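[step 3/7] inverse_fold.run input=structure_tokens len=376
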């Protein structure tokens, strides 16, 4: 099977976005072979994340045409010269953040923002070219990843080898939403046993934050969302109560102060709005509270804040991908899933074949799905 197959271009199906505010179009594309230190992956399952939708709506800009998707499981189909950490046939999760193990971020035990981001920038790989073409035109990749395609090519630094027995249609969530939220609670906030937590936004990321708070032993976890349909699910993963901002005239920070007697230690923003990022900061205890920014406002909006919010002692932190060191930690999270330390029964609301990708985005936009997983 391996022989010289790896030298060939693969023709396959992919969902191509030709420009913002256009429908995704299932196209025949060509996927070039992996170059040195690259890996070509056959995608088995891919989740849909709000960030993909931000590109479709135009809220997040990228190069077009593009193949979206950044939360998947796959099998290594072929490898380029010099690849040593995976081989054809390995089950893998493609990553959006590399782990080079050499840069100043990688060698420090805290944080995960590897500086080897040039392995794929602006939708191309390290040699400034892409590996996808459609109708003779180059197609860019997205989030150093691109998974709404039957095959993708990525850098070896962006591939985590996982347990061969892991169910692809479930552990794909570890490629973005679950790891992002769960790690924000465990690695970034370092939620302490018995603490009071508040989570703004109860999408897939917010629910995963709640799961991380619960796993850390928080005694009270308050979920906040303007869509009350999200409350039942939030409670089933560990929220002890939920609040709808629409039911209150005052800011949620004041509501939380009243109902908790001013005892919220950890807050998380998983919506991506400047106003809720500030209100989440104001919601944590003024002397020793910590607020973690998980959501990112689209179009790089700037945020103004009152410095007094920090002067009194609050800690304001951010993280990407939950602070996990990607190549090392993602396989461990898959092992934790296999050991039943957590499950995704409440996160995966829909499973659809890849060709129903439009339906999957409709479900997201109607607020009906948490995660839809596409099966290839
Ligand atoms: N107040 C309270 N809740 C709100 C408000 C509001 N003003 N506005 C929207 N909400 C709720 C929605 O009803 C929804 O339930 C929830 O907030 C958001 O959930 P989803 O399903 O839209 O999104 P997620 O959970 O898939 O992702 C949320 C992020 C904030 C992580 C994402 O949008 C984002 O900002 N991504 C970029 C940053 C990042 O780290 N991304 C990693 C994943 S790509
Ligand atoms: Zn995502
Ligand atoms: Zn690095």
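[step 3/7] decode complete -> sequence:
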């Amino acid at each position: 099977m391996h022989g010289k197959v790896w030298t060939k271009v693969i023709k396959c199906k992919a969902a191509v976005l030709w420009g913002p505010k256009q429908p995704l179009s299932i196209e025949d594309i060509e996927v070039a072979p992996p170059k040195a230190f690259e890996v070509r992956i056959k995608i088995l399952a891919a989740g849909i994340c709000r960030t993909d939708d931000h590109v479709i709506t135009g809220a997040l800009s990228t190069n077009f045409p593009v193949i979206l998707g950044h939360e998947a499981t796959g099998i290594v189909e072929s490898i380029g010269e010099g690849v040593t950490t995976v081989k054809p046939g390995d089950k893998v999760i493609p990553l959006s953040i590399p782990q080079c193990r050499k840069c100043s971020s990688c060698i420090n035990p805290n944080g995960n923002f590897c500086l080897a981001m040039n392995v794929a920038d602006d939708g191309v790989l390290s040699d400034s070219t892409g590996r996808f073409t459609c109708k003779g035109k180059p197609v860019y990749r997205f989030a150093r990843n691109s998974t709404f395609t039957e095959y993708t090519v990525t850098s070896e630094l962006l591939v985590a080898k996982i347990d061969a027995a892991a169910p692809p249609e479930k552990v794909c969530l570890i490629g973005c939403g679950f790891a992002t939220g769960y790690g924000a609670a465990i690695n970034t906030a370092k939620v302490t046993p018995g603490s009071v937590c508040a989570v703004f936004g109860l999408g897939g990321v917010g629910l995963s934050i709640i799961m991380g708070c619960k796993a850390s032993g928080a005694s009270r976890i308050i979920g906040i969302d303007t869509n009350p349909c999200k409350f039942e699910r939030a409670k089933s993963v560990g929220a002890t109560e939920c609040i709808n901002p629409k039911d209150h005239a005052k800011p949620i920070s004041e509501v939380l102060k009243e109902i908790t007697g001013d005892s919220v230690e950890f807050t998380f923003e998983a919506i991506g709005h400047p106003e809720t990022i500030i209100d989440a900061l104001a919601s944590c205890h003024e002397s020793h509270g910590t607020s973690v920014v998980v959501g990112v406002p689209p179009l790089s909006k700037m945020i103004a804040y009152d410095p007094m919010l920090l002067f009194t002692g609050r800690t304001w932190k951010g993280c990407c991908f939950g602070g996990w060191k990607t190549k090392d930690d993602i396989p461990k999270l898959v092992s934790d899933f296999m050991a039943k330390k957590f499950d995704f029964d409440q996160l995966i609301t829909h499973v659809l074949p890849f060709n129903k990708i439009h339906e999957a985005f409709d479900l997201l936009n109607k607020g009906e799905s948490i995660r839809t997983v596409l099966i290839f």
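[step 4/7] annotate
The radius of gyration is 21 Å.
The chain has two domains: 10-175+345-375, 181-320.
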